[in-house]
Amino acid sequence: IDLLGEALLSLEMMEDGKHAQFKQHHTNEILEGTKVVGLYFSADWCGPCVKFTPELVQFYEMINSKKKRKKAVAPKDFEIVWISRCRDVEAYAQYFTHMKWLAMPPDEATGQRGQMLSNKYKVQGIPSLVLLDEVGNVITTDARNKIPMDRSGVGFPWRNPLATLYMTLVPKSLRFMIKSQIVDAKAKVLGRLKSILPQPVTA
Question: How far apart, in whole angstroms, are the C-alpha atoms of residue 54 and residue 51?
C-alpha cells in the first residue's frame, strides 16, 4: 500500500535469545495477499494504549491462527502496521518488543507521513485502529472499540453489508481500478476549483 511508504520494520530476536534487531521489508512484498491491514496509532506514554496492546496481540494471533489451520503456508488474513506516537527512538524500540506485527520506521511515523495518515483517517486520540481492505479502502476506523465487544472475532473485520456485497460481486482488480479512477477524478476536481477560485493577493 503506497501510503505506508516503501519499507516497514519487524522486530526479530537474535540467536542469543536476549536481544532483538530491526529487519526491513519492502512494503508491497510483505503485505502482498493480506486481506485486512490495520493501522495502529499508539504510544508507550499512553495508558489506554499500554492496556489495549496486549489485547490486540491476542486478537491478532487468534485471527491468523485460524488461517494457519486451513493452510500451512498462506498470506495473513490480518496484518497490522504500527504507527508510533512515541517521543523518541528508545521508547519506540522498547514498546515495539510488546508487539507481533510490522511498524512504520520511527522517523516516518512521527513525521509528515504519520501525520498525513492521522489526518486522512481523522484520528482524534490514541489508541486508534483503522482497518483497510486489500486495495486500501477503509473498512472501519473504529476497530479499537469493536475488538472488546467481539473478542472471538466472529464479525471481523466488521464490514457493513453493502461493502461485503460489493467485495463479493466485484473482483479485486476492478475494485483497484475504480479506486484509482476516483482518486484521479478527485484530483481533477480540486485542480479545477483552484483554477476558478480567486487567489489571495499578496502585497
Answer: 7
